[in-house]
Amino acid sequence: MSRPLAVVAVLVAALCFATTGTARALAGVDADAVSVGAARVLIGGGALGLLALAARRRRPAPAAVHRAGVSRVPNAIIVLVGAVGVLAYQPTFFTGTSLNGVAVGTVVALGSAPIVTGILDSVLRRRRPGIRWAIATAVAIVGVVLVSGMVGGDGRDAAISAGGIAASLGAGASYALYAIASKLLLDRGWSTSSAMGGVFGTAAVLSIPVMLITSMAWLVTPAGLVLALWLGLVTVTVAYLLFGAGLRQLSPATVSTLTLAEPLGATVLGLLVLHEQLSAVSIAGLAIIAVGVALIAIPVRSRSARVAASA
């Protein structure tokens, strides 16, 4: 897959992620966020796991490839760490938003994810993100802040919970864990379906106890079942197959910045489908997110290519 196609794959995955909030609003089910998250992982991760098993039966698993700078930790440990990251994301994200509000919680979680991912990628894979990534990420995070309503709101002061900040940072770190884990497996020669199926399939198995301790009454209603299938199959199975395809070609840091297009997509869906109203600040934020994503998405011609073209 070429780099432009990889970028498109990640952006489409981000659009799939962006449908989560709109789908929940349209379904109108009375469901706990942890319960919905567990069902989402079980259905979507289970489907990815089955796809991985089917692919493995059709052809032998590739031999492990340990590229330069890649940790030699056993594959099983990498899969388990990635699965823990998948499971931890949902409760930490919603804990942060419940303690500090959706605006602060979302900004800290989404804003910290590419930063933590870039740091972990530098340490574990010895791949340092470049200055272009840093600028694009900073620009996109500014856009997320504006879209969230943290700037230009009603001016009321609210106490910030340290526990909520820690939870939101935990969500960003959880994202980084499964992104890096998936990339390590891809670097070792795993196929996209095997890598994503291994991580999310394991997370699906681990999510079963979570489902058993939460109320699942919403899942047996028609609206609840449709919601669970959409969140599982579209925002996990389809989205992470695309995510993995992009991750094979791109660095985890670049992918994490591209997925900041998610709040842009979610806001546009809220505007078009839920008929929400946008402030001028939010509109400016959408434009800034688009600029940040474009900075990292649009390929830059190398100096040698420019010289050759001008010769």
Describe the structure.
With 311 residues, the protein is mainly α. It has one domain. It has helices at residues 3-27, 33-58, 75-124, 131-148, 162-187, 192-212, 222-249, 252-258, 261-272, 280-297, 303-310. The protein starts with a helix and ends with a helix.
Give a concise summary.
The chain is an all-alpha fold. It contains eleven helices and no strands.
Approximately how much beta-strand content do the residues carry?
under 5%
Q: Overall pLDDT, averaged?
A: 84
State the distance separating the first and last CA atoms.
29 Å
Structural class: mainly alpha
Which outline best applies?
globular
What is the C-alpha radius of gyration, as a whole number of Å?
19 Å
Oligomer: single chain
Which runs of at least 5 residues are low in confidence (pLDDT < 50)?
63-69, 302-311
Biggest beta sheet attributes: none
Quickly count the domains: 1
Give the topology string: H per helix, E per strand.
HHHHHHHHHHH
The tally of beta strands, per DSSP, is 0
Q: How much helicity do the residues have?
A: over 70%
Tally the helices.
11
Write a concise keyword list for the protein shown above.
311 residues, mainly alpha, globular, 11 helices
List the topology elements.
Elements: H1 3-27, H2 33-58, H3 75-124, H4 131-148, H5 162-187, H6 192-212, H7 222-249, H8 252-258, H9 261-272, H10 280-297, H11 303-310
